[in-house]
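=== Structure Prediction Worksheet ===
Name of assembly: unnamed complex
Input type: mixed (protein and possibly other molecules)
Chain count: two
Listed entries:
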Amino acid sequence: MSRDRGPEGPWDLAAIYDRVAASLYRHALMILADPAAAEDVVHDVFAALAGRRPPDVTSIDAYLRQAVRHHCFTRLRRRRWRPPAGTDEPALLEAAEAATVCHDERIAIEQVLRSLPPEQREVVHLKTFEGLTFQEIADVTETSINTIASRYRYAIEKLRAAFGREDRQPAVTKEPR
Amino acid sequence: MIDPHDADADVDARLRRYAPLAPPARLRAHVLAPTTRLSSSRRTWWIAAAAALVAVTFHVLASATYAEVRADISRADDIARSQRIERLAADLGSSAAARAAAVRIVTFEEQMTDRPGAMPENGDRR
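=== Predicted Assembly ===
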């Protein structure tokens, strides 16, 4: 497995950042449901990597992902905080490329995502947006595959219910692109 | 009846029309130049250091004030003691022997006063 540093040299932080930071940020964002907190977490993880001799790991990407997860859940435990549902909250999602979307639908999805426990939000993110299998998610989160499947099932049921309510409402506002 | 798997696929398809936000561009600059922004652990360290500095400063100031007050009290005690000895020496005849006796009496009273209950005030013996 490739290493991102020479035998004596430091990490090539810029290369690592460019390769994994976006994915790590999105992961943190979906766990915390708070863009500013996600930014803090990613910054702190990279700052820790830059500030000391890194651990002897075979995959720095996996190490960083675990570090981000650890920071996120530690932060959630410390604050005993849950993101409130509401339209004034900062956005979590943006339109995927070439997708026709509507503002109301995005707000509705974000509200449901915010109402989910962070663990369920994380599974939805890794399954739907990152495209991982349940087994891969179980490996990343060090959780049993049955638990992962259950979390995904609960989250999808809540989203389905929200979509059902939304489909019965006629108002649709086009998303400004 | 709607097949749950179809419903799940619909939910999944709707979700895939969106993606979590990308990190802000400023984050890269912050990460690659860590001195531009303090990490949370360092912020915590500075807060703790500032709190400790405030506590030490307060302690030093309080100690200095306490020492000044103690010195003032001590000076006042010395003046009162001298005046008492002078009055007592005058009552005893103002001689050198009278002054020495006055010093012994005042010293004896002070020693008795330092032992609570050893000498009733105002000669009130019951």
